[in-house]
Specification:
It is a single chain. This protein is mainly α and about 190 residues long. The termini are far apart.
Length: about 190
């Protein structure tokens, strides 16, 4: 008898409890959508990457570097639809940066140049990671975009510097002196038996 009386109250209680949970979920989803919209607008307004202003002699070095041109093209295309588009773009930029790093031309291949691209690749990986989090830290993303722009400027300056160094003529006997300073050519000390 007690069970018959208790059972309808239990059903009514569960029904109202479920309704309240659904309302709470709906309110929570609306808050998340509003927050994501604000984050999207902030990231969209900050998503401007620096264009390269290379000197004509530097442009001559990279004119046949197809991966570099594809990277710059990818960099200039701005996603406009959603956070998902920014996530896809960051992944594509990471991939393009890896391709550029693997295909550096011999004229530009130096530790300084390669390290700048490695740092930029790390920044793009960080950008991709932050954009794929559930709660996107918009200030960190904006900071990374600024850092990437600084790294692009450093790459541009390094290209121009390498070209400038290559244009400096070598003095007579300089090549011999550099060869003499090379420690790998030194005569090895072999102990006498």
């Amino acid at each position: 008898m007690k069970i018959r009386v208790f059972f309808p109250f239990l059903i009514v209680f569960i029904f109202f409890s479920c309704q309240q949970d659904n309302e709470k979920r709906l309110i929570q989803q609306q808050k998340e959508l509003a927050k994501n919209e604000v984050v999207f607008k902030k990231i969209s307004s900050a998503w401007n990457f620096r264009t390269m202003n290379l000197q004509p002699s530097s442009q001559e070095l990279v004119k046949d570097w197809a991966q570099w041109r594809l990277f710059l093209t990818e960099l200039q295309q701005k996603p406009t639809s959603s956070i998902g588009a920014f996530q896809k773009k960051s992944k594509a930029l990471s991939k393009k940066t890896e391709e550029v790093l693997q295909s550096i031309p011999q004229q530009l291949f130096s530790p300084e140049f390669k390290s700048r691209f490695t740092v930029m690749l790390t920044k793009f990986h960080s950008l991709e990671m932050y954009l794929n989090l559930d709660a996107i830290p918009d200030q960190k993303v904006i900071s990374l975009i600024t850092d990437i722009n600084l790294q692009l400027a450093a790459i541009e300056l390094q290209m121009n510097e390498l070209v400038r160094k290559n244009q400096i003529p070598t003095e007579q006997g300089e090549a011999d002196m550099i060869r003499m300073l090379d420690t790998s050519r030194a005569v090895k000390n072999v102990p006498k038996i």
